[in-house]
Design brief:
The chain is an alpha/beta fold. It has 19 helices and 16 strands. Bound molecules: iron/sulfur cluster (SF4) and FE4-S3 cluster (SF3).
Protein backbone atom coordinates (compact mmCIF):
# COMPACT_ATOMS: atom_id res chain seq x y z
CA UNK A 1 0.00 0.00 0.00
CA UNK A 2 0.95 3.61 -0.32
CA UNK A 3 -1.12 6.38 1.19
CA UNK A 4 -0.11 9.92 2.05
CA UNK A 5 -3.45 11.67 1.95
CA UNK A 6 -3.54 12.86 5.57
CA UNK A 7 -1.37 14.79 7.99
CA UNK A 8 -0.42 11.86 10.19
CA UNK A 9 1.06 9.85 7.32
CA UNK A 10 4.00 7.70 8.46
CA UNK A 11 7.31 9.60 8.81
CA UNK A 12 5.69 12.56 7.06
CA UNK A 13 6.16 10.77 3.74
CA UNK A 14 3.64 7.93 3.37
CA UNK A 15 2.09 4.87 5.01
CA UNK A 16 3.39 1.75 3.31
CA UNK A 17 2.69 -1.28 5.48
CA UNK A 18 -0.30 -0.16 7.51
CA UNK A 19 -1.88 3.21 8.03
CA UNK A 20 -1.07 5.18 11.15
CA UNK A 21 -4.85 5.69 11.20
CA UNK A 22 -5.36 1.91 11.42
CA UNK A 23 -6.16 1.30 7.74
CA UNK A 24 -4.73 -2.07 6.71
CA UNK A 25 -3.14 -2.80 3.35
CA UNK A 26 -6.18 -4.75 2.07
CA UNK A 27 -8.59 -1.94 2.87
CA UNK A 28 -6.18 0.58 1.34
CA UNK A 29 -6.12 -1.53 -1.84
CA UNK A 30 -9.92 -1.74 -2.22
CA UNK A 31 -10.19 1.97 -1.47
CA UNK A 32 -7.66 2.61 -4.24
CA UNK A 33 -9.67 0.37 -6.54
CA UNK A 34 -12.84 2.29 -5.72
CA UNK A 35 -11.16 5.59 -6.57
CA UNK A 36 -9.91 4.01 -9.81
CA UNK A 37 -13.40 2.77 -10.70
CA UNK A 38 -14.90 6.14 -9.76
CA UNK A 39 -12.49 7.94 -12.07
CA UNK A 40 -13.75 5.69 -14.89
CA UNK A 41 -17.34 6.48 -13.99
CA UNK A 42 -16.58 10.20 -13.99
CA UNK A 43 -14.73 9.93 -17.30
CA UNK A 44 -17.87 8.50 -18.91
CA UNK A 45 -20.22 10.78 -16.93
CA UNK A 46 -18.27 13.83 -18.11
CA UNK A 47 -18.56 12.73 -21.75
CA UNK A 48 -22.25 11.95 -21.27
CA UNK A 49 -22.92 15.33 -19.67
CA UNK A 50 -21.48 17.06 -22.69
CA UNK A 51 -24.21 15.33 -24.68
CA UNK A 52 -26.89 16.34 -22.20
CA UNK A 53 -27.07 12.89 -20.59
CA UNK A 54 -27.00 13.02 -16.80
CA UNK A 55 -27.61 10.45 -14.11
CA UNK A 56 -28.34 11.56 -10.58
CA UNK A 57 -27.54 8.09 -9.22
CA UNK A 58 -24.04 8.36 -10.70
CA UNK A 59 -23.61 11.88 -9.31
CA UNK A 60 -24.63 10.81 -5.82
CA UNK A 61 -22.53 7.68 -6.04
CA UNK A 62 -19.32 9.54 -6.86
CA UNK A 63 -19.86 11.72 -3.77
CA UNK A 64 -20.51 8.72 -1.54
CA UNK A 65 -17.75 6.58 -3.02
CA UNK A 66 -15.04 9.20 -2.63
CA UNK A 67 -16.30 10.20 0.84
CA UNK A 68 -15.97 6.53 1.88
CA UNK A 69 -12.23 6.72 1.20
CA UNK A 70 -11.67 9.88 3.25
CA UNK A 71 -9.41 9.37 6.26
CA UNK A 72 -11.10 7.74 9.26
CA UNK A 73 -14.41 6.97 7.53
CA UNK A 74 -14.52 3.31 6.54
CA UNK A 75 -12.01 0.65 7.57
CA UNK A 76 -14.16 -2.31 6.54
CA UNK A 77 -12.75 -3.79 3.30
CA UNK A 78 -15.92 -5.87 2.67
CA UNK A 79 -18.03 -2.74 2.41
CA UNK A 80 -16.03 -1.59 -0.63
CA UNK A 81 -16.89 -4.67 -2.72
CA UNK A 82 -20.45 -3.57 -3.62
CA UNK A 83 -19.23 0.01 -4.07
CA UNK A 84 -16.69 -1.01 -6.74
CA UNK A 85 -19.35 -3.08 -8.48
CA UNK A 86 -21.84 -0.22 -8.35
CA UNK A 87 -19.33 2.22 -9.87
CA UNK A 88 -18.88 -0.12 -12.84
CA UNK A 89 -22.62 -0.74 -13.18
CA UNK A 90 -23.38 3.00 -13.26
CA UNK A 91 -20.50 3.57 -15.69
CA UNK A 92 -21.75 0.89 -18.08
CA UNK A 93 -25.29 2.19 -17.87
CA UNK A 94 -24.12 5.66 -18.90
CA UNK A 95 -22.04 4.09 -21.68
CA UNK A 96 -25.05 2.31 -23.14
CA UNK A 97 -27.07 5.54 -23.02
CA UNK A 98 -24.25 7.27 -24.86
CA UNK A 99 -24.11 4.41 -27.39
CA UNK A 100 -27.82 4.78 -28.03
CA UNK A 101 -27.59 8.55 -28.44
CA UNK A 102 -24.65 8.32 -30.82
CA UNK A 103 -25.83 5.36 -32.89
CA UNK A 104 -25.02 6.06 -36.51
CA UNK A 105 -23.91 9.60 -35.69
CA UNK A 106 -20.18 9.80 -36.49
CA UNK A 107 -20.05 13.47 -35.46
CA UNK A 108 -21.37 12.71 -32.03
CA UNK A 109 -18.97 9.79 -31.62
CA UNK A 110 -16.09 12.08 -32.49
CA UNK A 111 -17.16 14.43 -29.68
CA UNK A 112 -17.53 11.59 -27.19
CA UNK A 113 -14.09 10.24 -28.06
CA UNK A 114 -12.60 13.70 -27.61
CA UNK A 115 -14.24 14.05 -24.21
CA UNK A 116 -12.71 10.79 -22.99
CA UNK A 117 -9.28 11.66 -24.40
CA UNK A 118 -9.29 9.50 -27.57
CA UNK A 119 -8.35 10.50 -31.09
CA UNK A 120 -11.34 11.06 -33.38
CA UNK A 121 -10.41 8.14 -35.62
CA UNK A 122 -9.78 5.78 -32.72
CA UNK A 123 -11.07 2.27 -33.30
CA UNK A 124 -12.25 2.01 -29.72
CA UNK A 125 -15.02 4.05 -28.08
CA UNK A 126 -13.60 4.32 -24.56
CA UNK A 127 -9.97 4.28 -23.48
CA UNK A 128 -8.40 1.33 -21.75
CA UNK A 129 -8.18 1.83 -18.02
CA UNK A 130 -10.89 2.70 -15.51
CA UNK A 131 -13.48 3.35 -18.24
CA UNK A 132 -13.28 -0.28 -19.35
CA UNK A 133 -11.86 -2.30 -16.45
CA UNK A 134 -13.88 -5.18 -15.02
CA UNK A 135 -13.83 -5.83 -11.29
CA UNK A 136 -12.78 -9.19 -9.91
CA UNK A 137 -15.50 -11.47 -8.58
CA UNK A 138 -14.57 -11.26 -4.92
CA UNK A 139 -12.75 -9.22 -2.28
CA UNK A 140 -9.44 -11.08 -2.70
CA UNK A 141 -9.45 -10.42 -6.43
CA UNK A 142 -10.32 -6.78 -5.88
CA UNK A 143 -7.49 -6.39 -3.38
CA UNK A 144 -5.10 -7.72 -6.03
CA UNK A 145 -6.53 -5.29 -8.58
CA UNK A 146 -6.32 -2.46 -6.05
CA UNK A 147 -2.61 -3.03 -5.53
CA UNK A 148 -2.15 -2.34 -9.25
CA UNK A 149 -4.18 0.82 -9.23
CA UNK A 150 -2.94 2.81 -6.25
CA UNK A 151 -1.09 6.09 -6.50
CA UNK A 152 0.96 5.76 -9.71
CA UNK A 153 4.63 5.40 -8.86
CA UNK A 154 5.95 6.54 -12.21
CA UNK A 155 9.55 7.79 -11.90
CA UNK A 156 9.25 9.41 -15.34
CA UNK A 157 6.24 11.51 -14.38
CA UNK A 158 6.66 15.17 -13.49
CA UNK A 159 6.81 15.45 -9.69
CA UNK A 160 4.84 18.67 -9.62
CA UNK A 161 2.07 17.42 -11.86
CA UNK A 162 1.83 14.27 -9.73
CA UNK A 163 1.62 16.51 -6.65
CA UNK A 164 -1.14 18.72 -8.08
CA UNK A 165 -3.06 15.71 -9.37
CA UNK A 166 -3.14 14.16 -5.89
CA UNK A 167 -4.06 17.57 -4.44
CA UNK A 168 -7.07 17.69 -6.77
CA UNK A 169 -8.09 14.14 -5.83
CA UNK A 170 -7.89 14.88 -2.09
CA UNK A 171 -9.62 18.23 -2.52
CA UNK A 172 -12.38 16.44 -4.40
CA UNK A 173 -12.75 13.88 -1.61
CA UNK A 174 -13.42 16.76 0.77
CA UNK A 175 -15.75 18.55 -1.64
CA UNK A 176 -17.66 15.32 -2.29
CA UNK A 177 -18.02 14.78 1.46
CA UNK A 178 -19.66 18.21 1.77
CA UNK A 179 -21.81 17.61 -1.32
CA UNK A 180 -22.94 14.29 0.16
CA UNK A 181 -23.93 15.98 3.43
CA UNK A 182 -25.81 18.60 1.41
CA UNK A 183 -27.58 16.04 -0.79
CA UNK A 184 -28.81 14.19 2.32
CA UNK A 185 -30.54 17.47 3.23
CA UNK A 186 -32.02 17.87 -0.26
CA UNK A 187 -29.47 20.33 -1.67
CA UNK A 188 -27.85 19.33 -4.95
CA UNK A 189 -26.33 21.24 -7.83
CA UNK A 190 -25.79 20.36 -11.47
CA UNK A 191 -22.94 22.88 -11.51
CA UNK A 192 -21.14 20.99 -8.75
CA UNK A 193 -21.73 17.56 -10.26
CA UNK A 194 -20.46 18.71 -13.67
CA UNK A 195 -17.28 20.08 -12.10
CA UNK A 196 -16.81 16.99 -9.95
CA UNK A 197 -16.91 14.67 -12.99
CA UNK A 198 -14.76 17.00 -15.10
CA UNK A 199 -12.07 17.25 -12.42
CA UNK A 200 -12.04 13.55 -11.58
CA UNK A 201 -11.91 12.67 -15.28
CA UNK A 202 -9.04 15.15 -15.73
CA UNK A 203 -6.90 13.15 -13.31
CA UNK A 204 -6.70 10.46 -16.03
CA UNK A 205 -5.39 12.84 -18.68
CA UNK A 206 -1.76 12.76 -19.76
CA UNK A 207 -1.89 15.81 -22.01
CA UNK A 208 -2.12 18.54 -19.36
CA UNK A 209 0.76 20.79 -18.33
CA UNK A 210 1.69 22.41 -15.08
CA UNK A 211 -0.40 25.52 -15.69
CA UNK A 212 -3.45 23.41 -16.47
CA UNK A 213 -2.98 21.60 -13.17
CA UNK A 214 -2.63 24.82 -11.21
CA UNK A 215 -5.94 25.94 -12.76
CA UNK A 216 -7.62 22.60 -12.02
CA UNK A 217 -6.51 22.92 -8.39
CA UNK A 218 -8.17 26.33 -8.17
CA UNK A 219 -11.26 24.95 -9.93
CA UNK A 220 -11.40 22.26 -7.26
CA UNK A 221 -11.40 24.99 -4.60
CA UNK A 222 -14.27 26.72 -6.35
CA UNK A 223 -16.20 23.45 -6.69
CA UNK A 224 -15.79 22.96 -2.96
CA UNK A 225 -17.09 26.47 -2.33
CA UNK A 226 -20.24 25.46 -4.19
CA UNK A 227 -20.52 22.24 -2.15
CA UNK A 228 -20.11 24.16 1.12
CA UNK A 229 -22.70 26.72 0.04
CA UNK A 230 -25.14 23.87 -0.66
CA UNK A 231 -24.44 22.37 2.73
CA UNK A 232 -24.94 25.69 4.47
CA UNK A 233 -28.29 26.03 2.67
CA UNK A 234 -29.17 22.46 3.72
CA UNK A 235 -28.25 22.90 7.38
CA UNK A 236 -29.80 26.34 7.86
CA UNK A 237 -32.79 25.62 5.60
CA UNK A 238 -33.73 22.54 7.56
CA UNK A 239 -32.62 23.38 11.08
CA UNK A 240 -32.63 27.20 11.12
CA UNK A 241 -29.71 29.55 11.69
CA UNK A 242 -27.64 28.67 14.78
CA UNK A 243 -28.06 31.06 17.69
CA UNK A 244 -25.71 31.53 20.66
CA UNK A 245 -26.40 28.59 22.95
CA UNK A 246 -24.91 27.39 26.21
CA UNK A 247 -24.02 23.70 26.16
CA UNK A 248 -23.43 21.79 29.41
CA UNK A 249 -20.28 19.65 29.58
CA UNK A 250 -21.54 17.65 32.55
CA UNK A 251 -24.07 14.85 32.72
CA UNK A 252 -27.71 14.31 33.56
CA UNK A 253 -28.67 11.24 35.56
CA UNK A 254 -30.09 8.43 33.45
CA UNK A 255 -29.75 6.64 30.11
CA UNK A 256 -27.55 8.31 27.52
CA UNK A 257 -26.56 8.07 23.84
CA UNK A 258 -23.53 9.86 22.40
CA UNK A 259 -23.48 10.99 18.74
CA UNK A 260 -20.23 11.71 16.91
CA UNK A 261 -19.31 12.64 13.33
CA UNK A 262 -20.83 15.53 11.38
CA UNK A 263 -24.31 14.47 10.22
CA UNK A 264 -27.19 16.64 11.44
CA UNK A 265 -29.83 14.50 9.75
CA UNK A 266 -28.81 11.36 11.64
CA UNK A 267 -28.90 13.33 14.87
CA UNK A 268 -32.41 14.62 14.12
CA UNK A 269 -33.65 11.09 13.39
CA UNK A 270 -32.14 9.83 16.64
CA UNK A 271 -33.70 12.71 18.59
CA UNK A 272 -37.11 11.85 17.11
CA UNK A 273 -36.77 8.13 17.83
CA UNK A 274 -35.71 8.73 21.45
CA UNK A 275 -38.43 11.26 22.31
CA UNK A 276 -40.17 10.53 25.60
CA UNK A 277 -37.97 7.53 26.43
CA UNK A 278 -36.01 9.13 29.25
CA UNK A 279 -32.76 9.00 27.24
CA UNK A 280 -30.47 12.06 27.09
CA UNK A 281 -28.61 12.70 23.85
CA UNK A 282 -25.01 13.95 24.04
CA UNK A 283 -22.84 15.23 21.22
CA UNK A 284 -19.20 14.31 20.76
CA UNK A 285 -16.48 15.96 18.64
CA UNK A 286 -17.73 17.84 15.60
CA UNK A 287 -21.39 17.36 16.61
CA UNK A 288 -21.02 20.02 19.34
CA UNK A 289 -22.24 22.94 17.17
CA UNK A 290 -25.54 21.08 16.55
CA UNK A 291 -26.74 22.47 19.89
CA UNK A 292 -27.04 25.90 18.27
CA UNK A 293 -29.65 24.92 15.65
CA UNK A 294 -33.24 25.87 16.63
CA UNK A 295 -34.80 22.78 15.05
CA UNK A 296 -32.44 20.48 16.95
CA UNK A 297 -32.25 22.22 20.31
CA UNK A 298 -36.04 22.23 20.58
CA UNK A 299 -35.81 18.59 21.73
CA UNK A 300 -35.69 18.74 25.54
CA UNK A 301 -33.62 15.55 25.76
CA UNK A 302 -30.86 16.97 23.51
CA UNK A 303 -28.79 17.57 26.61
CA UNK A 304 -25.07 18.36 26.38
CA UNK A 305 -21.62 17.56 25.07
CA UNK A 306 -19.25 14.76 25.99
CA UNK A 307 -15.50 14.61 25.39
CA UNK A 308 -13.18 16.43 23.03
CA UNK A 309 -11.73 15.74 19.58
CA UNK A 310 -11.65 12.47 17.63
CA UNK A 311 -8.12 11.38 18.56
CA UNK A 312 -9.12 11.12 22.23
CA UNK A 313 -12.09 8.81 21.62
CA UNK A 314 -10.39 5.58 22.68
CA UNK A 315 -9.87 7.07 26.13
CA UNK A 316 -13.13 8.98 26.32
CA UNK A 317 -15.65 6.50 24.90
CA UNK A 318 -14.83 3.85 27.48
CA UNK A 319 -16.02 6.33 30.13
CA UNK A 320 -19.34 7.00 28.42
CA UNK A 321 -22.07 4.88 30.05
CA UNK A 322 -24.12 4.29 26.93
CA UNK A 323 -24.03 3.52 23.21
CA UNK A 324 -22.12 5.70 20.75
CA UNK A 325 -23.20 6.47 17.19
CA UNK A 326 -20.59 7.38 14.55
CA UNK A 327 -22.31 9.25 11.70
CA UNK A 328 -19.17 10.20 9.69
CA UNK A 329 -15.43 10.60 10.28
CA UNK A 330 -13.42 10.27 12.47
CA UNK A 331 -13.68 6.72 13.82
CA UNK A 332 -10.73 4.99 15.47
CA UNK A 333 -10.33 1.31 16.23
CA UNK A 334 -12.92 0.63 18.96
CA UNK A 335 -11.32 -0.49 22.23
CA UNK A 336 -12.55 -3.69 23.82
CA UNK A 337 -14.14 -1.71 26.66
CA UNK A 338 -16.72 -0.14 24.33
CA UNK A 339 -16.56 -2.24 21.13
CA UNK A 340 -19.99 -3.76 21.86
CA UNK A 341 -21.68 -0.37 22.15
CA UNK A 342 -20.27 1.62 19.26
CA UNK A 343 -22.48 1.73 16.18
CA UNK A 344 -21.77 3.05 12.70
CA UNK A 345 -24.18 4.45 10.14
CA UNK A 346 -24.02 6.06 6.70
CA UNK A 347 -20.60 5.66 5.10
CA UNK A 348 -18.74 4.86 8.31
CA UNK A 349 -17.44 1.37 8.92
CA UNK A 350 -15.24 -0.67 11.20
CA UNK A 351 -15.08 -4.48 10.81
CA UNK A 352 -17.24 -6.25 13.37
CA UNK A 353 -19.06 -3.11 14.47
CA UNK A 354 -22.87 -3.05 14.24
CA UNK A 355 -23.92 -0.93 11.28
CA UNK A 356 -27.26 0.87 11.19
CA UNK A 357 -28.40 0.73 7.56
CA UNK A 358 -30.40 3.04 5.33
CA UNK A 359 -33.60 2.46 7.33
CA UNK A 360 -31.95 4.43 10.18
CA UNK A 361 -33.68 2.29 12.75
CA UNK A 362 -31.79 3.17 15.92
CA UNK A 363 -33.65 0.63 18.09
CA UNK A 364 -30.42 -1.29 18.96
CA UNK A 365 -28.93 1.90 20.44
CA UNK A 366 -32.11 2.76 22.31
CA UNK A 367 -32.32 -0.72 23.82
CA UNK A 368 -28.64 -0.59 24.75
CA UNK A 369 -29.01 2.83 26.38
CA UNK A 370 -31.97 1.68 28.48
CA UNK A 371 -30.22 -1.57 29.43
CA UNK A 372 -27.04 0.26 30.53
CA UNK A 373 -28.85 2.86 32.58
CA UNK A 374 -26.46 5.69 31.78
CA UNK A 375 -25.07 8.23 34.25
CA UNK A 376 -25.68 7.39 37.94
CA UNK A 377 -26.12 11.04 38.92
CA UNK A 378 -26.14 14.62 37.69
CA UNK A 379 -22.67 16.17 37.36
CA UNK A 380 -21.72 19.76 36.70
CA UNK A 381 -18.65 20.22 34.53
CA UNK A 382 -19.23 23.75 33.34
CA UNK A 383 -20.45 24.73 29.89
CA UNK A 384 -19.37 26.22 26.57
CA UNK A 385 -21.05 28.59 24.14
CA UNK A 386 -21.75 27.61 20.52
CA UNK A 387 -23.83 29.10 17.72
CA UNK A 388 -21.75 31.99 16.40
CA UNK A 389 -22.30 31.14 12.74
CA UNK A 390 -22.66 33.80 10.07
CA UNK A 391 -26.21 34.87 10.94
CA UNK A 392 -25.43 35.42 14.63
CA UNK A 393 -22.11 37.21 14.01
CA UNK A 394 -23.42 39.36 11.18
CA UNK A 395 -26.44 40.21 13.32
CA UNK A 396 -24.03 42.23 15.47
CA UNK A 397 -21.84 43.39 12.57
CA UNK A 398 -22.50 47.08 13.37
CA UNK A 399 -21.25 46.55 16.89
CA UNK A 400 -18.19 44.64 15.65
CA UNK A 401 -17.33 47.39 13.15
CA UNK A 402 -17.79 50.04 15.84
CA UNK A 403 -15.51 48.16 18.26
CA UNK A 404 -12.81 47.94 15.60
CA UNK A 405 -13.17 51.62 14.67
CA UNK A 406 -12.92 52.65 18.32
CA UNK A 407 -9.77 50.55 18.72
CA UNK A 408 -11.42 48.16 21.19
CA UNK A 409 -10.80 45.21 18.86
CA UNK A 410 -7.32 45.20 17.33
CA UNK A 411 -7.37 41.97 15.37
CA UNK A 412 -9.40 38.83 14.57
CA UNK A 413 -7.83 35.40 14.42
CA UNK A 414 -9.50 32.46 12.76
CA UNK A 415 -7.89 29.57 14.61
CA UNK A 416 -9.53 26.51 13.16
CA UNK A 417 -9.25 23.22 11.35
CA UNK A 418 -8.69 19.63 12.30
CA UNK A 419 -7.29 18.20 15.49
CA UNK A 420 -4.98 15.20 15.63
CA UNK A 421 -2.61 13.30 17.84
CA UNK A 422 0.71 15.00 17.04
CA UNK A 423 2.34 16.82 19.97
CA UNK A 424 2.99 19.86 17.72
CA UNK A 425 -0.72 20.57 17.79
CA UNK A 426 -0.39 22.10 21.24
CA UNK A 427 0.71 25.18 19.23
CA UNK A 428 -2.94 26.07 18.68
CA UNK A 429 -3.82 26.07 22.37
CA UNK A 430 -0.69 28.07 23.21
CA UNK A 431 -1.49 30.49 20.40
CA UNK A 432 -5.00 31.17 21.73
CA UNK A 433 -3.60 31.54 25.26
CA UNK A 434 -1.25 34.25 24.01
CA UNK A 435 -3.70 36.19 21.84
CA UNK A 436 -3.81 39.70 23.38
CA UNK A 437 -6.95 40.75 25.22
CA UNK A 438 -7.99 43.25 22.58
CA UNK A 439 -8.26 40.51 19.93
CA UNK A 440 -11.10 38.12 19.07
CA UNK A 441 -10.71 34.42 18.19
CA UNK A 442 -13.11 32.82 15.72
CA UNK A 443 -12.88 29.06 15.57
CA UNK A 444 -14.36 26.09 13.75
CA UNK A 445 -13.88 22.34 13.29
CA UNK A 446 -12.46 19.88 15.78
CA UNK A 447 -9.18 21.73 16.29
CA UNK A 448 -11.13 23.97 18.69
CA UNK A 449 -11.16 21.26 21.36
CA UNK A 450 -7.65 22.36 22.26
CA UNK A 451 -9.20 25.52 23.75
CA UNK A 452 -13.01 25.36 23.42
CA UNK A 453 -13.64 25.50 27.17
CA UNK A 454 -11.37 28.44 27.94
CA UNK A 455 -12.99 31.54 29.30
CA UNK A 456 -11.53 34.33 27.17
CA UNK A 457 -14.02 36.87 28.49
CA UNK A 458 -15.61 39.50 26.28
CA UNK A 459 -15.06 42.93 24.76
CA UNK A 460 -18.01 45.22 25.58
CA UNK A 461 -20.33 42.21 25.62
CA UNK A 462 -18.88 40.49 22.52
CA UNK A 463 -17.36 37.13 23.51
CA UNK A 464 -13.67 36.89 22.61
CA UNK A 465 -14.06 33.23 21.59
CA UNK A 466 -16.67 32.66 18.88
CA UNK A 467 -17.44 29.11 17.74
CA UNK A 468 -18.57 29.33 14.11
CA UNK A 469 -19.30 25.58 13.92
CA UNK A 470 -18.03 22.40 12.30
CA UNK A 471 -15.44 22.18 9.53
CA UNK A 472 -18.63 21.79 7.47
CA UNK A 473 -19.38 25.44 8.34
CA UNK A 474 -16.28 26.93 6.72
CA UNK A 475 -18.68 28.61 4.27
CA UNK A 476 -20.11 30.52 7.22
CA UNK A 477 -16.65 31.76 8.27
CA UNK A 478 -15.92 32.86 4.69
CA UNK A 479 -19.24 34.75 4.59
CA UNK A 480 -18.35 36.51 7.86
CA UNK A 481 -15.00 37.61 6.39
CA UNK A 482 -16.61 38.78 3.15
CA UNK A 483 -19.29 40.76 5.02
CA UNK A 484 -16.71 42.39 7.30
CA UNK A 485 -14.66 43.36 4.24
CA UNK A 486 -17.78 44.98 2.77
CA UNK A 487 -18.46 46.82 6.03
CA UNK A 488 -14.90 48.17 6.08
CA UNK A 489 -14.94 48.79 2.34
CA UNK A 490 -11.78 46.77 1.77
CA UNK A 491 -10.57 43.43 0.48
CA UNK A 492 -10.66 40.35 2.75
CA UNK A 493 -6.84 40.34 2.67
CA UNK A 494 -6.82 43.90 4.05
CA UNK A 495 -8.99 43.08 7.07
CA UNK A 496 -7.42 42.91 10.53
CA UNK A 497 -7.96 39.13 10.25
CA UNK A 498 -5.42 36.31 10.20
CA UNK A 499 -6.05 32.65 9.53
CA UNK A 500 -4.10 30.17 11.59
CA UNK A 501 -5.22 26.77 10.38
CA UNK A 502 -4.61 23.15 11.27
CA UNK A 503 -5.24 20.34 8.82
CA UNK A 504 -5.55 16.60 9.12
CA UNK A 505 -7.81 15.08 6.48
CA UNK A 506 -9.14 15.86 3.02
CA UNK A 507 -12.04 18.13 3.97
CA UNK A 508 -9.36 20.50 5.23
CA UNK A 509 -7.53 20.16 1.89
CA UNK A 510 -10.74 21.16 0.11
CA UNK A 511 -11.26 24.17 2.39
CA UNK A 512 -7.67 25.29 1.89
CA UNK A 513 -8.09 25.10 -1.90
CA UNK A 514 -11.29 27.15 -1.58
CA UNK A 515 -9.49 29.84 0.41
CA UNK A 516 -6.67 29.95 -2.15
CA UNK A 517 -9.13 30.04 -5.06
CA UNK A 518 -10.74 33.08 -3.38
CA UNK A 519 -7.34 34.77 -3.32
CA UNK A 520 -6.96 34.63 0.48
CA UNK A 521 -3.32 35.22 1.40
CA UNK A 522 -1.04 34.89 4.38
CA UNK A 523 -2.54 31.69 5.80
CA UNK A 524 -0.50 29.96 8.49
CA UNK A 525 -0.80 26.19 8.20
CA UNK A 526 0.26 23.38 10.49
CA UNK A 527 1.18 21.35 12.30
CA UNK A 528 3.14 20.01 9.29
CA UNK A 529 2.76 20.59 5.57
CA UNK A 530 1.12 17.96 3.32
CA UNK A 531 3.46 15.18 2.14
CA UNK A 532 1.79 15.26 -1.27
CA UNK A 533 2.85 18.86 -1.94
CA UNK A 534 6.11 18.90 -3.92
CA UNK A 535 8.83 21.44 -3.28
CA UNK A 536 8.04 23.44 -6.42
CA UNK A 537 4.32 23.47 -5.69
CA UNK A 538 5.05 24.67 -2.17
CA UNK A 539 7.28 27.42 -3.54
CA UNK A 540 4.48 28.44 -5.90
CA UNK A 541 2.05 28.65 -2.97
CA UNK A 542 4.50 30.68 -0.91
CA UNK A 543 5.22 33.09 -3.76
CA UNK A 544 1.63 33.57 -4.87
CA UNK A 545 -0.33 33.21 -1.64
CA UNK A 546 2.18 33.99 1.12
CA UNK A 547 1.15 30.71 2.75
CA UNK A 548 3.49 29.79 5.60
CA UNK A 549 4.03 26.95 8.02
CA UNK A 550 3.31 27.77 11.67
CA UNK A 551 6.42 28.55 13.73
CA UNK A 552 5.94 29.35 17.42
CA UNK A 553 2.92 31.21 18.83
CA UNK A 554 5.25 33.97 20.06
CA UNK A 555 6.90 34.51 16.69
CA UNK A 556 3.71 34.20 14.68
CA UNK A 557 1.80 36.63 16.90
CA UNK A 558 4.67 39.07 16.74
CA UNK A 559 4.80 38.83 12.94
CA UNK A 560 1.03 39.23 12.58
CA UNK A 561 0.52 42.05 15.05
CA UNK A 562 3.73 43.82 14.11
FE1 LIG B 1 -1.69 6.86 6.45
FE2 LIG B 1 -3.37 8.93 6.63
FE3 LIG B 1 -3.51 7.24 4.59
FE4 LIG B 1 -4.28 6.50 7.08
S1 LIG B 1 -5.24 8.05 5.73
S2 LIG B 1 -3.08 5.29 5.62
S3 LIG B 1 -2.72 7.58 8.30
S4 LIG B 1 -1.83 8.63 5.07
FE1 LIG C 1 -12.07 16.81 12.64
FE2 LIG C 1 -11.96 14.32 11.80
FE3 LIG C 1 -10.97 17.30 10.33
FE4 LIG C 1 -14.43 18.10 10.80
S1 LIG C 1 -13.51 15.19 12.98
S2 LIG C 1 -12.50 18.52 11.24
S3 LIG C 1 -10.37 15.75 11.67
Amino acid sequence: MFCFQCEQTAHGTGCTKKGVCGKDADTAAVQDLLIYATKGLSQVAHAAREQGITDNAADRFVCEGTFSTLTNVNFDAERFVPLVRRAVELRDDLKSRLNQAAEGDAGLWAKIKKAVGLAEDSAISFPEGPATFQPAADLEGMIRQGHEHGIPDDPEANEDIKSLKETVIYGLKGACAYADHAAILGQESEVFYAEMHRLLAATLRQDLGLEDWVQLTMDCGQANMKAMELLDAGNTGKYGHPTPTEVPLGAKKGPAICVSGHDLHDLELLLKQTEGQGIQIYTHGEMLPCHGYPELKKYPHFYGHFGTAWQNQQQEFKEFPGPILMTTNCIQKPREEYADRIYTTGLVGWPGTTHIGADKDFTPLIEKALEMGGFPEDTDNGSVMVGFARNAVLGVADKVVDLVKRGKIRHFFLVGGCDGAKPGRSYYEDFVDQVPEDCVVLTLACGKFRFFDKDLGSIEGLPRLLDVGQCNDAFSAIQIAVALAQAFDCEVNELPLSMVLSWYEQKAVAILLTLLSLGIKDIRLGPTLPAFVSENVLNYLVENFDIKPISTPEEDLKAILG
